[in-house]
């Protein structure tokens, strides 16, 4: 089977590993498993999985440390599993390079959807990213011309609105933390000014004509934001 279909499940709870392995294999994925952080690092290095599902509560290395070490040499998408209410852990993991998170107890269909999105957006090693045109679903962003269209309709954005949207569009489907967005759009000194993002997210949703039942710009409470292709998320 093509390596792009390989998923590494890292969890020290055998019941969770069994459930995820069965669900992933039923959908055609090749599944590898590891119960410790050291085994996970070794498996990523030797097997080159397309996606890593990483529990943060491991018996040897902290899951965040595993994420940090992987990011020193690999851009494999990492989806972390976190405990209910663990917003600080989620934020730290995302800041250290995780791409997404799912909260325990989790919905298996939701997790599988996140895996599909991660695989679709995974870039082959060494592939250059062309940032001149960013496309996420029906949202098209021409970076050099600083223009944005939604479903073929041009919309006017302020410089900060444009920056906010473009940062998210460079990482479609990925959760970006408040600090990541603020530092890239406003500057490092604004890393804690989360109230700015609430205001600008509201303005962007109006201009994107977002449907609250199926939004493009999604708020991850206490964590950050993501920009999604609505058709891809539904699929």
Description:
By secondary structure, this protein is of the alpha/beta class. The protein folds into two domains: 3-121, Rossmann fold; 133-234, Winged helix-like DNA-binding domain superfamily/Winged helix DNA-binding domain (Arc Repressor Mutant, subunit A). 40% of the residues lie in helices and 22% in strands. It has nine helices and twelve strands. It has helices at 14-26, 37-47, 63-71, 87-95, 108-121, 159-169, 178-185, 194-208, 230-234, and strands at 6-10, 30-34, 51-55, 78-83, 100-104, 133-136, 139-142, 147-150, 153-155, 176-177, 217-220, 224-227. It has a five-stranded parallel beta sheet with strand order 2-1-3-4-5, with helices on both faces. Helix 1 links the parallel strand 1 (6-10) and strand 2 (30-34). It is globular. It starts with 5 loop residues before the first strand and ends with a helix.
Sum this structure up briefly.
The protein is α/β, with parallel strands linked by helices and 235 residues long. The chain folds into two domains: 3-121, Rossmann fold; 133-234, Winged helix-like DNA-binding domain superfamily/Winged helix DNA-binding domain (Arc Repressor Mutant, subunit A), CATH 1.10.10.10. The chain contains nine helices and twelve strands.
